[in-house]
Automatic annotation (TrEMBL):
<dbReference type="GO" id="GO:0009055">
    <property type="term" value="F:electron transfer activity"/>
</dbReference>
<dbReference type="InterPro" id="IPR036909">
    <property type="entry name" value="Cyt_c-like_dom_sf"/>
</dbReference>
<keyword id="KW-0349">Heme</keyword>
<dbReference type="GO" id="GO:0020037">
    <property type="term" value="F:heme binding"/>
</dbReference>
<feature type="compositionally biased region" description="Basic and acidic residues">
    <location>
        <begin position="46"/>
        <end position="56"/>
    </location>
</feature>
<keyword id="KW-0479">Metal-binding</keyword>
<dbReference type="InterPro" id="IPR009056">
    <property type="entry name" value="Cyt_c-like_dom"/>
</dbReference>
<keyword id="KW-0408">Iron</keyword>
<protein>
    <submittedName>
        <fullName>Uncharacterized protein</fullName>
    </submittedName>
</protein>
<dbReference type="GO" id="GO:0046872">
    <property type="term" value="F:metal ion binding"/>
</dbReference>
<feature type="region of interest" description="Disordered">
    <location>
        <begin position="28"/>
        <end position="56"/>
    </location>
</feature>
<dbReference type="Pfam" id="PF13442">
    <property type="entry name" value="Cytochrome_CBB3"/>
</dbReference>
<keyword id="KW-0732">Signal</keyword>
<feature type="signal peptide">
    <location>
        <begin position="1"/>
        <end position="23"/>
    </location>
</feature>
Length: 308
């Protein structure tokens, strides 16, 4: 269940987030002499203290352009300017029904970059988390209906710790609500999400890009579709994901599988075997054919691996 939510509760959350960030920045560096002990949410550890700017940036979200220029917003600023929604969904990481306050990715990302959704839909976007985790994805995937960035858990308890690390997921936790969006390999769910960064596909997938082909070649269209739908799981010349099989080396898939089989498998894998791969039944015959053209074109662009 999803409802648009601009109630006073959201504004209160914004004020609390802002006040908490300020309080954290102003906290004393050493405990008071009569302190009873360490805070209950900060267990003793031998690890070094986190950088001082980590606390102050905890509730900041960055949007970095391909030119390296960054626009940074506090959560309070985003709540003020981006529509918010109450989203109730069975969450696979919590393994139970949860209700979140969230931004639609289709509204948040264009606001953050100051660009239209149409301009960003064909862009490669890297998601970055507080702990350094990054995952490349694509604008068209992020702008699917059903994608959200949660910024608050059910009040008044606040964020429930997530996964085995019992981590605080703030400032943003990416969630997906449709049944077709529950595969984490195709629809990533980073938590402690702090950055959206534009990147060129040449930089992300240097060895997977078809070279010396005109822009109107079917293989170029196939490459664009492969980036949107496949490369998060599959690699070409070891550029791309690691969940599914490599597509080009040492043998290109078109060298040992027939065209009809490959295109039917892409469209509906479960007619052949059960696996993590989702069906891409939304792709037209012409789009599937262009993906095949791309795979065929890459046969002539295999990379050499040392010692192989």
């Amino acid at each position: 269940m999803i409802t648009q939510n601009c109630t006073p509760l959201i504004r209160l959350l914004a004020l609390l987030i802002s006040a908490t960030s300020f309080a954290c920045e102003r906290a004393p560096e050493a405990p008071q002499p009569d302190a009873a002990g360490p805070p209950t949410l900060a267990p003793k550890t031998d690890a070094a203290e986190p950088p001082k700017d980590e606390v102050s940036s905890r509730h900041a979200v960055k949007f970095t352009g391909a030119d390296g220029q960054t626009r940074s917003f506090s959560l309070a600023e985003l709540i003020e300017h981006v529509p918010t929604h109450e989203v109730t969904v069975h969450d696979p990481l919590y393994d139970k029904e949860k209700t979140f306050q969230a931004f639609s990715l289709r509204e948040l990302i264009p606001y953050g970059f100051g660009q239209t959704a149409e301009a960003l839909a064909d862009q490669d976007i890297v998601l970055g988390a507080l702990d350094g985790y990054t995952v490349p994805t694509h604008g068209a995937r992020l702008f699917e209906e059903g994608g959200y960035a949660a910024f608050a858990d059910e009040p008044p308890k606040g964020w429930e710790p997530i996964e085995a690390k019992k981590a605080d997921p703030s400032p943003l936790y990416m969630i997906w609500v449709k049944d077709s969006q529950q595969n984490e390999q195709t629809h990533p769910r980073p938590w402690q999400l702090t950055e959206f960064a534009l990147s060129s596909h040449e930089a992300l997938y240097a060895h997977a890009s078809p070279a010396d082909l005109p822009e109107d070649d079917p293989a170029q269209r196939g490459y664009a579709l492969f980036r949107q739908n496949c490369i998060v799981c599959h690699s070409v010349n070891l550029s791309g994901g690691r969940v599914g099989p490599e597509m080009n080396i040492p043998q290109n898939i078109t060298e040992y599988r027939s065209r009809d089989f490959v295109l039917a498998y892409i469209s509906n894998p479960e007619q052949f075997r059960y696996s993590q791969m989702p069906a891409f039944s939304h792709l037209s015959e012409a789009e599937l054919a262009s993906i095949w053209s791309y795979l065929e074109a890459m046969k002539a662009q295999k990379i050499e691996l040392p010692g192989k």
